[in-house]
Amino acid sequence: NRQIIVAELPQGELTESHYKLQDAPMPEPGDGEVLLRTVLMSIDAANRAWMQGASYRAAVKAGDVMPTYSISEVMKSNSPRLKEGDLVACEGEWADYITMPAHKCQKMPRVPRLENLLSVFGIAGKTAFHGLIQVGQPLAGETIVVSAAAGSVGGYVGQIGKALGCRVVGIAGGPEKCKWVVDHLGFDACVDYREAGLFKALRSECPNGVDVYFDNVGGDVLEAVLALMNERGRVACCGAISQYNTTNPSGPRNLPGAVVMKRLRMEGFIVMDFARDDEKATRALQAWVESGAIKVEEDVVEGLENAPKALIGLLAGDNKGKRMVRVGAD
Ligand code: NDP
Questions:
Q1: Which residue among 39, 40, 112, 247 is buried most deeply as judged by most CB within 10 Å?
Q2: What is the pLDDT of residues 166-224, one digit of tens each?
């Protein structure tokens, strides 16, 4: 049973030296517990944020096995809730096998592509759906801007926005990604934030201003978009990836000024806040996937041992769509 522990907490940039792969004994499930074999591990920007301190979950500490949202198969069950062969989602670990109280596992359907349980029907799709619709509240014809547009959450936000009849402008790193966001995902435009002149480039792609900004990155990009928001605009604060992997965070200088003058609503949210509407999200996403309105992009890295590289790469922007690690054969 291999597992990857956090050898040391990063101060600035996360590197492979912050992790260590080690062998551990095969765990034995106790009363009410199950033995799980990890099948797929979600690689999320949030994994890095968890290493910065306590948030909506406890902080990750040095010596911990790295936590991850994962899809696993029940190998042995000491609980009537689950049986051998069941597929579950839970907050697992970067490990081949773990034990878990059965009540902390959510039974999952054996869909044709298990990867979809982490992408469009997983946290990424639900975050995009709830955050855009319930927090951003876009109306047809309005302009939506979304950052980390080629990533998993951002890619769905833009495609949902198009399905709702909005103008959608993405922000992503590099010309190749921006072209892909337009040509492949169908956004109206995409602006490269690594190029100088982000504000001007965005302004020319948003001739009617910005009504909804779905913010995945915070920092300087947020500052530029705030300056283009229309009166009564909504900013759905989903995450701040530009601030997770640095010792030198930068924030928007036009806060609270822009919010006051333009009567903006900035609202943070965590996907779990909307759990009661998850079924509705899944039904809507399924219909859009079936009609072709939403393309499902998955970026699968093979092998538990490659999880550190996969997370470091995600923070550097080398993923398109939902990144995950396949640990075992499904
Ligand atoms: P993504 O698949 O979007 O990958 C992250 C992307 O962020 C990278 O591909 C990279 O693309 C971009 N990025 C990295 N650094 C920067 C930077 N300094 N400035 C701008 N963009 C950057 O990851 P996730 O889907 O896991 O996460 C996206 C966001 O959603 C995160 O902020 C995360 O915390 C948040 N989130 C929030 C949830 C909630 O409940 N509130 C739930 C799930 C996710 P590029 O090449 O374009 O730079």
A1: 40
A2: 999 999 999 999 999 999 999 999 999 999 999 999 999 999 999 999 999 999 999 99
Of all atoms in ligand 1, which is nearest to the CA of residue 155? 3
Contact criterion met (CB below 8 Å) for 109 and 61: no
Distant-in-sequence, close-in-space partners of 234: CB < 8 Å, separation ≥ 6 = 135, 136, 137, 211, 212, 213, 264, 265, 266, 267
Ligand 1 centroid to residue 148 C-alpha, Å: 5
- Segment 42-55, tens digit of pLDDT: 999 999 999 998 88
Which residues' Cβ are closer than 6 Å to ligand 1? Answer: 44-46, 49, 123-124, 127, 147-148, 150-154, 172-173, 177, 193, 216-217, 221, 238-242, 269-271, 314-315, 317, 319, 323
CA gap 39, 43 in Å, rounded = 13
ipTM exceeding the 0.85 mark: yes
pLDDT at residue number 329: 54
Task: Name the residue of 51, 130, 153 whose CB sits within 8 Å of the most ligand 1 atoms, as the mutation to test its pocket.
Answer: 153
